[in-house]
């Protein structure tokens, strides 16, 4: 592994002195590749902390008809229908 790394550095050193334009192109390509890789890693990391919700159930509420025969008053249409009965 050490010999491979030393060979890689020698190649880069030789490229930088022999062909500076090719060296700059290579380094710029490596930097672009690194930025793309880091952006992808950041996106994956952000997804770990993103809350994604889904509905698991649905319900509907229908008004209940409440009839109290003890109360005598003038009734209007809809007076006998209540959503919530707080009197009890």
Describe the secondary-structure layout.
Blueprint (H helix, E strand, L loop, with lengths): L1 H17 L1 H29 L15 E2 L15 E2 L6
Antiparallel strand pairs: 1-2
Helix pairs in contact: 1-2
Describe what you observe in this structure.
With 88 residues, this protein is mainly α. It has one domain (1-83). 52% of the residues lie in helices and 5% in strands. The chain has 2 helices and 2 strands; from the N terminus they run ααββ. It has a two-stranded antiparallel ribbon with strand order 1-2. Helix 1 crosses helix 2 (20-48). The mean pLDDT is 80.
Structural class: mainly alpha
Average the pLDDT over all residues and give the rounded result. 80
> What's the gyration radius in Å?
37 Å
Provide the helix percentage. Answer: 40-55%
Got a strand count?
Answer: 2
In percent, how much strand structure appears in the residues?
A: under 5%
- Number of helices in the DSSP assignment: 2
SSE order, one letter for each helix or strand: HHEE
Low-confidence stretches: none
Number of domains: 1
Strands of the largest sheet, in order across it? 1-2
User: How far is the N terminus from the C terminus?
Assistant: 82 Å
Which descriptors would you attach to this protein?
two-stranded antiparallel ribbon, 2 strands, mainly alpha
What is shown here, in short?
The chain contains 2 helices and 2 strands, in the order ααββ.
